[in-house]
Design a protein that fits this description.
By secondary structure, this protein is mostly beta strands. The protein is about 0% helix and about 60% strand. A 4-stranded antiparallel β-sheet has the order 1-4-5-6, with no helix packed on it. The chain has a 4-stranded antiparallel β-sheet with strand order 3-2-8-7, with no helix packed on it.
Length: about 110
């Protein structure tokens, strides 16, 4: 289990629900965790947004959990970087990259 936001492990989805991996993520605050592996990463949005590290993580509090395939980049990203890329007025891609690994997933705004 990995919480990629070092000091701040929360993500705030404001105003509108999102659809990710065919599932609805209601607007709100979430803890954001990953389980990295070579072939698949598990992404978790957890309702316990104010927890202090992975020791307080409990899978029963996951609001959304899904798997993504990591990509290997030719470029090295020295610091953990998050991006939200708008692809249309109602969709986009969330990504995180660190070193040569890039993990990204599409979302739609409901």
């Amino acid at each position: 289990l990995h919480y990629p936001l070092r000091r701040q492990r929360q993500m705030c989805i404001r105003d509108r629900d999102l659809t990710i991996d065919g599932k609805v993520l209601p607007a709100g605050k979430y803890g954001f965790f990953t389980i990295p592996s070579k072939d698949k990463w598990t992404i978790m949005f957890n309702s316990n947004w104010d927890q202090h590290g992975k020791d307080e993580y409990d899978e029963k509090d996951d609001v959304l959990q899904f798997k993504v395939t990591p990509k290997i980049s030719q470029e090295v990203q020295e610091h953990l970087e998050y991006k939200i890329i708008k692809t249309s007025d109602v969709s986009g891609t969330m990504s995180l990259s660190w070193e040569k690994v890039v993990v990204e997933f599409p979302f739609e705004v409901n």
